[in-house]
Every structure is written in structure tokens, then in C-alpha cells.
Amino acid sequence: MMLIFVYINIIFTLTTTFADVSRYPTRQNRRYRLPIDRDIPEMTVPEMIEYWGYPAEEHWVTTEDGYILGLHRIPHGREVDNRNTSKPVVYLQHGLTSSSSCWSFGPPEKSLAYILADQGYDVWMGNSRGNSYSRNHTHLDPSSQEFWDFGWQEGGLFDVTAGIDYALQKTNQTTLYYIGHSMGATQYLVMLSERPQYNKKITMGVLLAPPAYMTHGTSFIFDLARFADDIQILFHLFGFYEFLPHSEVITQLAHRFCGTDHPWSSELCLNAGLLILGFNPGQLNGSMIPTYLDHIPEGTSTRPFVHYAQLYLNGGFKAYDYGAEKNLEKYNQSSPPDYDLRNVVAPTAVFKGDADSLVSLVDADLLVNSLPHVVLDHIVEENGWTHIDYILGMDADRLVYTYILQLFQASP
Questions:
Q1: What pLDDT digit, counting tens, does each position of 357-406 carry?
Q2: CA–CA separation, 150 vs 246, rounded Å?
Q3: Other CB atoms closer than 10 Å to residue 347's CB: what's the count?
């Protein structure tokens, strides 16, 4: 029941009109524009990429433990078709309950995937196991409990490694740039801590709001963890296996009640969203909210949430705690081991915000001080910058993406 109320709050939240997306040109290479009074239609990520005038490819890769993941690629920019020209590769990994959509919502000048493509990069976007594009397995059924027996620990060990290897093989490159938001940043740290051979495949890593140390977080998720006598209570609240599967109900209600056609509900939608998701009201493009809710939330398992709650409670950056008996089986010790961040030797940039309820400035600094090769430690120069603003913030292009491009252009 709790999730039902959370869903309803999110739906009746996320809208107020800060910008009119209909003024932006679309599919310029196909010579048509959006009618001024038309909403952006519901689309998959490849359809959305093409909608904004870019080439889209969909690829599939199978992980070592049998999950079949969808990868989305933008091989070149909107104006120049140079797909057969060798270009630097960028691999983008989304956060929790998200997908490759977070990099490609549009409009193009505001979305990182398109900005990178137009700057001459070969853009690959991963999808973590369990979301709409990675909901398959060689032998496990998504309706089974076994399918959902995973967390971001497995995502770091198997998902991003498989995606990176595939992208490098397809492009005949030996290294790539990695950008991770939220859980995508955690997976990067797990990958390089546990499989340090992947350091040589990373030209540079960029971590946007990286959750690792989380003791100083202020999210209501942590309040639940702190007041629960047993962390298993979180499983009862969130569901034992699948958490937040994307629902057609969410999409339909978003289009019904949120957006520029329904100004009577925009104030209510906005206020609820600020409460639940921590939006900075000056950064939210209200006219895009129906499009956001076409893709958010995406499905995942419950374990990533519980694992983050464990980090909040134990004060470290540790592997998942199964309990003493199963820890002995998994780790040969009764308590979960620390991830060895000394192994993360690839050049790494860290971006942090002053109003991030999940990754506080104190915790971000703990991470920075634990990494051996930090090339940039950057606090976003905007008061009230939240965890989600890296993806949905209207000024993310100016406040974050510009710095990423500068870092890439200056790298060897």
C-alpha cells in the first residue's frame, strides 16, 4: 500500500510549466516540426532518439551470469553522418529505477547523449538488469524470484563490464570514457575495485552524485532504515524481489493530469514531486514531466535499496550484507568486506551538489579522499542542486555537461 501512495504522490507532482518544449525543432533532417499544441508522444528510447533527429541503434549483450541487456547507441551527431569514422567512445550508465532514457529525453541541447554525439563522440548507453530493456535471461523467467536476486554489486561486476567489452569490440577501440549517475557511479566503483583489470579500459570516469559512503544522507529512505529494528522491514515495505516495475498506469495518469494541457493540477504535481524526489523548482522543466514519467520509474530489484540502506547504517562502502551465515558462504567471513577503492586507479572526476539528500557533501568528500586518482572534485555552482538535477536540471548543460566536455577534450 505504501508504494501505491508514493506512486500517486509522484504522479500528482511533477508538473509546472517552466519551459515550452514545443518551441524546439525536431527531426530537422526530416523537415518537420512539432505542432505548437502537441505533446511529445510516448516512445521507447530508440524512438525518442530518432524523434530528436539522431540515428539510433539497439544492441544486446549477455552477461556472465545470463542476463540479456539492451544497449542503445548514437553512433554520430545530427548534422554529420560519420558512422564509419573512428571516434572516441563514451559509455553512459543510468541510476537506480532509471534507464538509458535519462540521457536522451531531449531537447538535444539539454540532454547529455545528444550533446556528446554532436561533439563527435560515439555514444553508448547501458541498461541495468531488470529494467524495460534488460528484462530477459538465458534461462530465468522474470516472473521468478531467482531472476530478481541481484543488486548493484552484480551490476558492477557483470552488467557494466559486459557493456563496456561489447562497445569496445564493436568500435575496435581499446578504451572509452565512462559517465555514471547515481547507481551508475556506484557500479563503476564496484567494477574497478573488484575487477581492477578494467582500469586499463577507462580513459576517464565521470561520477555524477556517486553513492558510496552514505552516513550523512538525509533521504526519507534512510529515515526508514534508521527507525527499523530489522533491515528486513525494508523488504516488506518495498516488496521482496521486484521494486518499482514501470507501469502503464503511471504513464497514462501522467499524461492525463500532468503537462501543459492541465494547468489546474500543475501546482499540486510540482509540490508532491519536490517532496518525494527532491527537485530544485528552478531546474524542473514542467512541460517535460509526462515524457519523464513515460520512463521513470523503471524496474529493478529491491536489494539495491536495502544495500544503500546498509551503507547508511554501517558507515562504510561494503559489499552486501547477507547475514553472518551466508556471508561466510559468499565472502569467507561473517561480515561483508569493504570495497578496496585503492584499486580505482583510472582518472576519475567527481561531481557533487549542495542539496543532494542521498549523497551529501561530507560523504562525497570521503569518497574523493579514498580514490587515488581524482582529476576533478567539483561542487555544482548552483544553490539547491539535488540528486536528480544532473539528469533533469534545465541548467545541467551549463553547470555540469560543459565541464565534462572540457575534461574529455583535455585528456590525453
A1: 999 999 999 999 999 999 999 999 999 999 999 999 999 999 999 999 99
A2: 18
A3: 18
Whether the per-residue pLDDT at 241 is higher than 70: the answer is: no
Which is it for strands 202-208 and 374-379: parallel, antiparallel or unpaired? unpaired
- What span, in angstroms and rounded, lies between the C-alpha atoms of 57 and 72? 6
pLDDT at 6: 39
Residues 131 and 125: beta-carbon distance below 8 Å: no
Residue 76 CA to residue 54 CA, distance in Å, equals: 8
* Residue ranges with strand state E in 235-328: 242-243, 300-301
Farthest-apart Cα atoms in the chain, separation: 63
The one catalytic residue among 182, 193, 301, 360: 182
- Tell me, rounded to whole angstroms, the distance of Cα 50 from its chain centroid: 21
Helix/strand/coil (H, E, C) string of 225-244?
HHHCCCCCHHHHHHCCCEEC
- Under DSSP, is residue 208 helix (H, G, I), strand (E, B) or coil? strand
pLDDT value for 80: 82
Nearest to 343 by CA among 370, 365, 361: 370
Q: What is the CA radius of gyration of the chain?
A: 20
Tell me if residue 99 is catalytic: no
Asked if 101 and 284 touch (Cβ cutoff 8 Å), the reply is no
Q: Burial letters for 389-409: b for 16+ Cβ neighbours within 10 Å, e otherwise? A: bbbbbbbbeebbbebbeebbe
Helix (H) or strand (E) holding 370: helix 361-370
Grid coordinates in use for 217?
A: 544522507
Q: Establish whether 387 is a catalytic residue.
A: yes
Q: Are 228 and 380 in contact (CB under 8 A)?
A: no
Q: For strand 122-125 and strand 89-93, is the pairing parallel, antiparallel, or unpaired?
A: parallel
* Half-sphere exposure in the Cβ direction for 201 (13 Å, CA): 23
**What's the confidence (pLDDT) of residue 276?**
45
User: Which three-class secondary structure state does DSSP give residue 346?
Assistant: coil
Q: What is the mean pLDDT of residues 13-41?
A: 37
The model carries a pTM of 0.84
**DSSP string covering 148-199:** G---HHHIIIIIHHHHHHHHHHHHT-S-EEEEEETHHHHHHHHHHHH-GGGG
d(CA 14, CA 284): 8
